[in-house]
Structure formats: C-alpha cells, structure tokens
Amino acid sequence: MAYSPKRAMAELRHSSSIGARASSSPMKRDEDSSPLIPADGLSSSDDDNARGRHSHKDRDRSFCSHFHSLCPFLADDSRVSYHPSRISLFFLLFLLLLASISIFSLFKHINTPYLCSKDGIVLHCPQVKEPPSLWENPYSATTSWKSCAERRDGGISDLPPENETNGYIFVHAEGGLNQQRIVICNAVAVAKIMNATLILPVLKQDQIWKDKTNFEDIFDVDHFIDYLKDDVRIVRDIPDWFTDKAELFSSIRRTVKNIPKYAPAQFYIDNVLPRLKEKKIMSLKPFVDRLGYDNVPLEINRLRCRVNYHALKFLPEIEKMADLLAARMRNRTGNSNPYMALHLRFEKGMVGLSFCDFVGTREEKASMAEYRKKEWPRRYKNGSHLWQLALQKRKEGRCPLEPEEVAVILRAMGYPKETQIYVASGQVYGGQNRMAPLRNMFPNLVTKQELTTKEELDKFRKHVTSLAALDFLVCLKSDVFVMTHGGNFAKLIIGARRYMGHRQKSIKPDKGLMSKSFGDPYMGWATFVEDVIVTHQTRTGLPEETFPNYDLWENPLTPCMCKT
User: Fold this and answer.
1) Cα(486)–Cα(387) distance, rounded to whole angstroms?
2) Helices (H), 71-148
3) Which residue stretches, if any, does this entry annotate as coiled coil (predicted)?
4) How many CB atoms lie within 10 A of CB 6?
5) Using alpha carbons only, what angle is made at residue 563 by residues 104 and 305, rounded to the nearest 5 degrees?
C-alpha cells in the first residue's frame, strides 16, 4: 500500500569539489661540449677507459637534457663533485618528515571527539562506517564523551555552617513536574551563587495539574540533601527563629519580584544579595526561568547538572514500578525486544493553546473555537485572524503533530508494524477516532494503564505527579524516544539520554519541513521516505555543543560532559 504525503520538503543536497591534479613538463637544455682528450700516447686499456668515460658522459648529457635541475650534480667540472650519500640522506629525511606528519594527522583524527556542528539549520555530523540502525546511534558517537558532573567523593567541603551563610532563600516550584524539576535545579544554583542556605522548595499547586504534592511525596529528600552537602546548605523547613512564616509567603518586604527571565549570575550578586544580607531570609517569586545558561559560570551550570542527573531521585517505589513497566515492554513478544517511547502531545489543552488548525468535523472545529474563546479570550479576540495565524504556525513547525502524522513519519523511517511502542500522553483530543490511524499502523501500542493492573496503579493515583514520574522514567529507559511537540518533559528526557552517553536515539521531528511534505499532493511515497530519512539522520540526540542552539536541559554536553 502506498502512502502519499501532501507537501514538498526541500531536500538536503551536499556537494563536493574535486581538485585538479597538477602536472609538470621536463625542461630541455643545450648539450655541453665534451672535454678535450689527447689522442696521442693512449694504450688500448686507456682507450677503452676513455671510451667508457665518454659513454658515461654521453648518457649524463642525455639525462641532463631532460632533467635540467639535476645537471649540477652530474657535471664533470673539477669544481663540482657528486656525492650519492648526501642525496640518500636528504631523501631519507624527507620521507621521515612525511611519515611524522602522517602519523600526527592520523593520531589527531583518532583522538578528535565525535561532535556535530550546525550551519544555519543544517546539522553536519562526522561520517561513520557503521551501517545505520533503527535503534541506536553510531557507536563512535558514544565513545567520545562522558558525564562529568557527578559529586567528587573524598573532597573537603569549604561550605560555612548554616548560621554563617549570607541568609536563607525560599522558592515556590510552580508548574508541572518537569518545570518544578528545573526550578529546583535553578534554586540550588542561585543559593550557591549567593552563598545562601536553601530552604527545601515547595511544590506549588498548578492550575492545570490541580495536584497537591509535597517535595517528599515525589523525591528522595535524604538523598537530595546528602548528595549536595558539599555544594550548598539545604534545610527541610524555615528556621525556628523566624516565627512569622505567613510573612514569607505574602509580605512584599520579604519577596524579590524584579528578577528578569534568564538573569545572569551577576544580577543576583548585585541586586538580590544585598537584600538577603539585610533581611536574612527572602522569598524569590516568581522563579520560573529566572537564571540564564550562557551568562553564568561553568561550575554553576555543572552544579545544575549535578542536581538534575544525580541529586534529584524519585522515591524508590516510583523507580521500582518504572523498572517493572520497562521490563514488561521489553518482553511483550515472549523474547527480549527493544521498545520505543512516544510522547504524544495532543491533549485538548495543548491543541487549544497551540491555536493551530487540525483535521476534524465542522462541529469539532466550532467546539474548539468556543473553548479557545473561553480559556484565552485576549488571544482569541474576535477570531478573524486565527486562520492566517494557524497557517503561519504550521509552516514554522510550531504545531503539535497529529497521531496519524506521527504514524506516517515512523513508517517512513523504517519502523515495522511489529514495533513495540509505549505512549506517554494524557487524554488524546478526539479519543479513539483520532488514535485509529496510529493504532492501525502500529497495533503494539500501549499505555501504562494497559501494562499494569488497577491495583498496581492505584497507589500512584493519589498524586498526578507520581503518574507523570512513571511516564518520565519509562521514556528515559526506552531504546528510542520520539517527541511530537516541545515542552519540558521532552527536553529533559532528551538531555538526560545525551548525558547517559548519546547511545540511545532521541528523535526530534522537523515539523516545519514535514508540514511542507504533508502538504504536497504530488509527492510519492518513495520521495517522502527519502526526505524523512535524510532530514532526520542527524536529529537523534547526537553530540553537539550546548550553546547557542540548545539550553542546558536539552543538551548538557558543553558544561557537563568531558572528552573521554
């Protein structure tokens, strides 16, 4: 059965130049006159020798006529002598020099780390001799870099006691689980910048998630504090000497509110630290994305990686259940099999917030328009501009991929019908009808609800963030991870898989180029397959410098990984 996507994608074309080989022509010169030899008094042997010398000189002149540059060595003038040993020595030294250069070049090539570079929107990666694999990145990409943000055991901490730091800072970790994770990492970093004591962050209830979860309900607090004991002072609660705790949550005198997004480290030293020293305890609010990436010291970014990849661990029961789900995914065929994790962002809230246009009935479109008007009235206005906005966003690749689009892309990449796929998703907008094309092409598609019994999952239903943590870990452990839209979940998964060694594929579809292919009614299946493969051969989580194309969470290589 042939599939026909709808719009054409500009194919990547590589060109190479072939240098011309230089050639030289021998130069000619006039022959020299022979030396005068007396004719009288020569014996027969002398005559033979003379003829021999003339014969040699004739050959020399013939040779000289073709290779003029060597004639000085062959001249029989008494002032010039011919030394074969000097020529041999010169030639040997020349060969040794060439050999040294070749060995140095080879050594440099072998020790050059595997690193992709970006030229505009095109990513160029080193060529490898390995055949392409559906399930793994090239082995050479995994041997060049290693994680190096872990704690150094046996070191001597220079941290002052809790009561001798510059004060206490307190933050609310807002948003969903993954945004909260980023806030916690940034809070530790800011505490280090200001030499402050960090009060354990409070996980604030989110309007969308509507989940009341404490730090200790999701993360291992003891491990968190102990792992960072040589970096930052962390306490579980507000100190007893500060009696008016309500003031910390509500009083403007105890709150720093003017922190710009992606602020540099120096901003905290110049603007927040003086107030902290004066008040001794301050709340930072809001704190989402309030610390930059390329404007802070390397050791601060490395500390954020240490928090994210080593200090922040989920509770043991969450880790154990995730291991069980991953094991079940790997044994669904009766034998050991790889599995893919698909983060499908097509919930009603995401579809509405995107303001993109999607395939659907007239009733569905009218219902979505009313939903958007109610939830985002300032953006909706009168709705007259939304059609043009939707077209522009799709062209720029800012719309979530629909389930049927995901199915076609995966099949074009070469994944067979038998592929085992774990779906991390909320309630898909459109329900089973919207999911039908994806399930038809990949019937071995399951969710955590289908992998577990009701009793196994009930213990995690108390906190929505616990269910999100299970999805996070099962995706992290998968052989291939596929994202369909942006967000902190996908960003953190891709970054963690890179930090673990780049071996696991993390596919990030080029939605802008794919939208052009889907919109071309004349593109055949073979052409589409070629476009998909060429476009995504480097979009699999390969080694690439962090800045300026990535932030720390999606790609930790530059500050947090070292050459092997």
Assistant:
1) 22
2) 71-74, 84-111
3) none
4) 14
5) 165
pLDDT for 97 equals 78
- 3-class secondary structure, 457: helix
CA distance 557 to 559: 6
pLDDT digits (tens, 9 = 90+) for 446-500: 999 999 999 999 999 988 899 999 999 999 999 999 999 989 999 999 999 999 9
Its pTM stands at: 0.79
Q: Three-state SS string across 31-80, please?
A: CCCCCCCCCCCCCHHHHHHHHHHHHHHHHHHHHHHHCHHHHHHHCCCCCC
Cα distances (angstroms) measured from residue 480 to each of 113, 341, 343, 403, 537: 23, 6, 11, 17, 14
pLDDT value of position 164: 86
Please report the pLDDT score of residue 348 as a whole number.
93
Cβ neighbors of 472 (< 8 A, separation 6 or more) are 177, 178, 424, 489, 492, 493
Measured CA to CA, the distance from residue 513 to residue 539 in angstroms comes to 13
What's residue 191's pLDDT? 97
Q: What is the pLDDT of residues 60-92, one digit of tens each?
A: 444 444 444 434 433 444 444 446 677 887 778
Amino acid letter, residue 275: R
- Structure tokens given for 421: 């796929």
Phi-psi region of 216 (alpha: psi -120 to 50; beta: other; left: phi over 0): alpha
The neighbouring-strand residues paired with 562 are: 146
Within 416-543, where are the H helices?
Answer: 431-441, 448-451, 454-458, 464-476, 488-499, 511-518, 525-536
CB 534 within 8 A of CB 421: no
DSSP-based three-state secondary structure for 323:
helix
The CA–CA distances, whole Å, from 89 to 68, 83, 101, 102, 268 equal 22, 10, 19, 20, 68
3-class SS of residue 401: coil
- Model pLDDT, residue 120: 82
Residue 237, both tokens? 């609660």
- What are the tens digits of pLDDT across the range 314-369? 999 999 999 999 999 999 988 899 999 999 999 999 999 999 999 888 899 999 99
Query: Low-confidence residues of the chain, pLDDT below 50?
Result: 1-82, 108-109
Rg (CA), the chain: 35
Round to the nearest angstrom and report the end-to-end CA distance of the chain: 47
Give the H or E element holding residue 202. Answer: strand 202-203
Instruction: Tell me which residue of 278, 279, 284, 253 sits closest to 191, measured CA to CA.
Output: 284
**Contact, 539 vs 507, CB < 8 A?**
yes
Residue 395: which residues within 8 A CB-CB, separation 6 or more?
A: 512, 515, 516
Query: Which pLDDT belongs to residue 370?
Result: 93
Q: Where are the beta strands (DSSP E) in 286-361?
A: 340-343
Distance of CA 308 to the CA centre of its chain: 16
Measured CA to CA in angstroms, residue 220 lies from 215, 460, 476 at distances of 8, 16, 19
